[in-house]
Write a structure and sequence with these properties.
- The protein has 2 domains: about 210 residues, Orthogonal Bundle (Citrate Synthase, domain 1), CATH 1.10.580; about 100 residues, Cytochrome P450-Terp, domain 2 (Cytochrome p450-Terp, domain 2, Orthogonal Bundle), CATH 1.10.230.10.
- With about 375 residues, it is mainly alpha-helical.
- It has a 3-stranded antiparallel β-sheet.
- The protein is built from 17 helices and 3 strands.
- The relative contact order is 0.16.
- The longest helix is centred in the middle third of the chain and has 22 residues.
- This is Citrate synthase.
Length: about 375
C-alpha cells in the first residue's frame, strides 16, 4: 500500500464559496460594507431595526417601513408556551449557547418549509433575546420579565434582563455594537447556515446550525481577557503605567490585533467614536477609551511597524461590562445581532440555490 501526500492548505481559507450582495469585508483596507453602506456610518446614524431592514431587504426603510418592522419584531417576541416549558426543564449546568441552539430548534414557524421567508427571519430574530433573558432570570431564581412592545429591540433586551429601564447611554452603546456585529461576510457560522439551507432544509435548522458554529471558542468566544485587563487597570490614572509594564514584560494586550483586518478594524473605529461621544456617562466606557488611546501609542513605541490596533472585541468587552452583562451572556448577545446576517444569507441562498458539495483529498492508504 502506498501513502498519499497530505495537502498543504486546509480549512477552505481563500476559497470563494458564494456570491453575495449582503456585505463586503476587506481586511487589507479595513473596509466593512453592508449593502452598499459603510458599517461605521450605519452604526453611528441608524437604529438596529433600520439596519436589519437594510440587511434583509437591501435598502434603508422609509419611516413607514421602519415602524412596520419595529411592530413586527415586537409582535414576535413572545415565546410559544411549549418552548417556555422546555426551557424550564433544561438542566441548570447547560450553557446559554446550547440553550439557544436547543430552543430555536423548537420553533414552528408560519409558512412553507422551503423556501424561507422574511417573516420567518423576523420571527427568529425577535425571539432570541427573549430566550436569553428568560434563561438568565430563571438561572438567577428571578421572575420572568415579559417583553414590552413599546421598546426597541435592544432596549427591550436590556429591560428583560434586569427588569428595569436601561440607561440611554447603555442602549446606544449596545445598539451600535449590535449593528456592527450583525453581519460579517462568509464566516464559519454564516457558511454553516448557507450549507444547511442549500439542502432545502428549513430556516430553523439553518439558524440552529449557525448557533452551533458560533458556540465554538475560535468563532464566538467571549472577550473575557479584555475585561480582566480593564479591571486590573482600574482607573484612567493607572493606564500608562499598567500598559508600559505589561509591554516591558512581553505580555500581550488583549483586544488588539485581528486575523482579518491588517489595519484598523472599522467596527472598532465606529465604537470608539460612539463611546467618545458618551464621555462622562459611564466610567467603564471612559476607561476603555483612555486605554485604547494610550495603548496604540505605546504599542507603536514598543513594536514599531506592527500596526496593532483595537479589534471589535476590545470595545465589545467595555460595553458588556458597562451594561453589566455576565460573561456567559457575551456570545449569546453576539448571536442576538448576528441572527440578522444569518437569516439574510439563508434568504439569499434560496434565491439561486445550489447544494454545497465540496470535494476532499484522500490522504489515507490505498491498496496496491
Amino acid at each position: 500500500m502506498k501513502d498519499i501526500k497530505k495537502p498543504s492548505v486546509t480549512g477552505l481559507e481563500g476559497v470563494v464559496a458564494a456570491d453575495t450582495a449582503i456585505s463586503l469585508v476587506d481586511g487589507d483596507k479595513g473596509h466593512l460594507v453592508l449593502r452598499g453602506y459603510w458599517a461605521k456610518e450605519l452604526a453611528l446614524k441608524h437604529a438596529f431595526e433600520e439596519v436589519a431592514h437594510l440587511i434583509w431587504r437591501g435598502s434603508l426603510p422609509s419611516d413607514d417601513q421602519f415602524n412596520q418592522l419595529k411592530k413586527k419584531l415586537a409582535n414576535e417576541r413572545d415565546l410559544p408556551e411549549y418552548t417556555i416549558n422546555i426551557l424550564k426543564q433544561l438542566p441548570e449546568q447547560m450553557d446559554m449557547m446550547s440553550v439557544l441552539r436547543a430552543l430555536v430548534g423548537t420553533f414552528v414557524l408560519e409558512g412553507a418549509r422551503w423556501p424561507p421567508t422574511l417573516d420567518q427571519a423576523v420571527a427568529i430574530t425577535a425571539k432570541i433575546p427573549t430566550i436569553i433573558a428568560y434563561r438568565h432570570r430563571l438561572i438567577q431564581g428571578k421572575a420572568l420579565v415579559a417583553p414590552k412592545a413599546n421598546l426597541s429591540h435592544i432596549e427591550n433586551y436590556l429591560y428583560m434582563l434586569s427588569g428595569e429601564a436601561p440607561q440611554p447611554a447603555h442602549v446606544q452603546a449596545l445598539e451600535a455594537y449590535s449593528i456592527l456585529t450583525m453581519e460579517h461576510g462568509m464566516n464559519a457560522s454564516t457558511f454553516t447556515a448557507r450549507v444547511i439551507s442549500s439542502t432545502e432544509s428549513d430556516i430553523v435548522s439553518a439558524i440552529s446550525g449557525a448557533i452551533g458554529a458560533m458556540k465554538g471558542p475560535l468563532h464566538g468566544g467571549a472577550p473575557s481577557g479584555v475585561i480582566e485587563m480593564l479591571e486590573e487597570i482600574g482607573n484612567k490614572e493607572q493606564v500608562e503605567a499598567w500598559i508600559r509594564g505589561a509591554l516591558e514584560r512581553g505580555e500581550r494586550l488583549m483586544g488588539f490585533g485581528h486575523r482579518v483586518y491588517k489595519t484598523h478594524d472599522p467596527r472598532s473605529l465606529a465604537l470608539k467614536e460612539m463611546i467618545g461621544s458618551l464621555e462622562g456617562q459611564d466610567e467603564w466606557l471612559d476607561l476603555a477609551y483612555e486605554v485604547e488611546k494610550q495603548a496604540v501609542e505605546l504599542l507603536e513605541e514598543f513594536k514599531p511597524g506592527r500596526r496593532l490596533y483595537t479589534n471589535v472585541e476590545f470595545y465589545a468587552a467595555a460595553i458588556m461590562r458597562a451594561v453589566q452583562l455576565p460573561e456567559q451572556l457575551f456570545s449569546p448577545t453576539f448571536t442576538l445581532s448576528r441572527t440578522v446576517g444569518w437569516t439574510a444569507h439563508v434568504l439569499e441562498q434560496a434565491e439561486n440555490n445550489r447544494i454545497f458539495r465540496p470535494q476532499s483529498t484522500y490522504i489515507g492508504r490505498t491498496p496496491n
